Structures are given as C-alpha cells and as structure tokens.
Amino acid sequence: MKKILRFWSITMLLMAVSVILFACGGDDEGAPAEDGEISKLVVGTDATYAPMEYMDDNGDIVGIDIDIVDAIAEELGIEVEYKNIGWEPLFPAVDNDEVDFAVSSITITDKREESYDFTDPYYIANQLILVPEGSEIASFSELEDDKTISVQINTTGHTVVQKLIGETNPNILAAETMPLAITEMINGNADASVGDNSTINEYMDNNPNEAVKTIEDDDFEKEYYGLMVKKGNDEVRELLNEGIEKIKENGKLEEITGIVVE
Ligand code: ARG
Fold first, then answer.
1. Is the model's pLDDT at 26 over the cut of 60?
2. DSSP letter string, 188-208
3. Predicted local confidence at residue 27, as pLDDT
4. CA of 9 to the centre of ligand 1 (A)
5. What is the CA(221)–ligand 1 centre distance, in A?
6. Residue 65 CB less than 6 A away from ligand 1
7. Contact yes or no for 109/207 (Cβ under 8 A)
8. Which of 30, 67, 51 has its CA nearest to residue 229?
9. Of 95, 64, 96, 98, whose CA–CA distance to 81 is shortest?
10. How many angstroms separate the Cα of 150 from the Cα of each of 8, 50, 143, 154, 195?
11. Is the CB of residue 196 below 6 angstroms from any atom belonging to ligand 1?
C-alpha cells in the first residue's frame, strides 16, 4: 500500500513540475504565446546613451527610452526583457531575430527605412555641437574648414558631418560610443563633437567643471525617434504602435519625456 502511495505521489509531483515547466517555457523566446498573442518581447539597446539608455550603478539598463518601453509594455500587458547589444551590432541583431525590436534613440531616416520598419515617432531630437569653451566655432558650417569632428559611428550625427565635409574625410573621428566620441574632443583629438541634444546636454549637466560649451544650429533638421523592427514585422510594429498611441493619449509619454509628439 505504502509503495503504491509513494508511486502516486511521485507521479503527481512529476506532472506538477512538467505543467510548471511547460507554462514557463514558451516565455523565453519572446515568441507568440499559445493563443497567438504576444506575451513577451526581447528588446535590444545600446546602453551607453544617458539619459536615454544606460547602465546604472547596479548594472541595470535604465533611462528615458526604457521608461517609455516599460510604459508601453504595461499598457499592452506584456513582458519585456532588455539586452545591451551595443550600437552597431544592434542592427544585425534585429535582422537575425536576436531581439524582437530595438530602442536606442534611433532616428527614423529614409535610409534606415529601406532596411527596417519603424513605429510611429515617440520623441523629437536634434543635433547639438559640443566644443571647448574657448572655441571660436559658432555654427555647424564653420566645422568645414579643416576641423576634426568626433561622432558616434553610423549615427545621424555621423551622417550630418559626412554631408558637410565628405563621407570619407579623415577629419571625422567615428567612435564606437558617444561617450568615447566626447572623450576624443575633451582630450584634444577633435575640435568638436556632434550628437543628439539629449546626450550632449546630459554630458554638460554631469560635467559642470569641464571647460566646454554647446552650439545650437537651426540648420539641423528635427529628428524623430522610433522603435525599430525587422523589415516586414508588422505584428510587433503594430502592437508597439498601439502601446505608443495609448501612452500618448493618457499623458504617460509626456510625463516621461516632457515633450509632446503628435
Ligand atoms: N539618434 C541618433 C541616430 O539614430 C543617435 C542614436 C544613438 N543611440 C545610442 N543608443 N547610441 O543615429
């Protein structure tokens, strides 16, 4: 009798464990749940871009973009998992399904739209120039005269500078990250650094003793950030758009960014 009881309790235990494992299993992939609904998405980012996406002291990925995606996920009732992929590897990571989408202050550009799809815009930015305090440079076009300019590689900052002084001009220092680009300028290897206003302003706020100043230039076009999905991934794009729409409507997006994006 005892033996039979033990047999049954072990069988029940095994069944319970497999039910639990089964329930958890589907989640890891970021794949659609059983009923066809997406329950979790894996999100790639380049967490070197404070205040938008960066690592805090605990090694957690945080920032304005992360707050936005968390708010979207909450509205949609889905889970999100962040992966710090880096800037350049982020694009192939979206292509090869390593992540379901990317959030990384990514400007929606015609060029990128040839290879990727974007959600509706959720943030407006523009380029800003950072120069040493004593610099005589007063506008973007003045950087044309044999000035060395540091940028983060393959960003819109890189593109505007390439347009100004030529795509392969050796006076462009294209760094892996924006902090490295700024360091080049601080160390005297570049006359100016060009990047998104959010990061450059953050640098100014965090380094009040550094002898640098910013230059705005009305020639820079407004840039709109979007969440980036693999070309043709309408399912994820439309779902994210639904979430963006909701946080635009309920004021949550404005609460997080302080900006109204129509
Ligand atoms: N907005 C710029 C672009 O799309 C810079 C984005 C860089 N983002 C980052 N996390 N490093 O090119």
1. no
2. TS-SEEEEEHHHHHHHHHH-T
3. 43
4. 56
5. 15
6. no
7. no
8. 30
9. 98
10. 69, 18, 11, 12, 9
11. yes
Question: What is the rounded (10 degree) CA torsion for 133, 184, 65, 112?
Answer: 110
> Closest ligand 1 atom, CA of 65?
10
> What number of residues does the chain have?
262
Is 104 close to ligand 1, i.e. is its CB under 6 Å away? yes
Q: Cα–Cα distances in Å, from 233 out to 29, 33, 48, 115, 122?
A: 16, 17, 27, 12, 19
pLDDT confidence of residue 9:
57
pLDDT in tens, 193-245: 999 999 999 999 999 999 999 999 999 999 999 999 999 999 999 999 999 99
In this prediction, residues 70-94 reach a mean pLDDT of 98
In the reported structure, the alpha carbon of residue 176 is separated from the centroid of ligand 1 by a whole-number distance in angstroms of: 11
How many angstroms separate the CA atoms of 208 and 252, rounded? 31
Residue 3 confidence (pLDDT): 52
The CB of 199 under 6 Å from ligand 1? The reply is no
In order of start, what are the domains of the chain with their CATH numbers? 40-124+223-257 (3.40.190.10), 127-215 (3.40.190.10)
φ, ψ of residue 87 in degrees (nearest 5)? -75, -60
Q: With bands split at pLDDT 50, 70 and 90, how would you rate the model's confidence at 21?
A: very low
Is any atom of ligand 1 closer than 6 Å to the C-beta of 156? yes
Residue 56 scores a pLDDT above 80: yes
CA of 54 to the centre of ligand 1 (A): 12
Instruction: Please identify which residue in the block is written with the tokens 């300019």.
Output: 149
Encoded tokens for 143: 């950087």
Ligand 1 atom nearest the C-alpha of 49 is: 10
Shortest-distance atom of ligand 1 to CA 125: 1
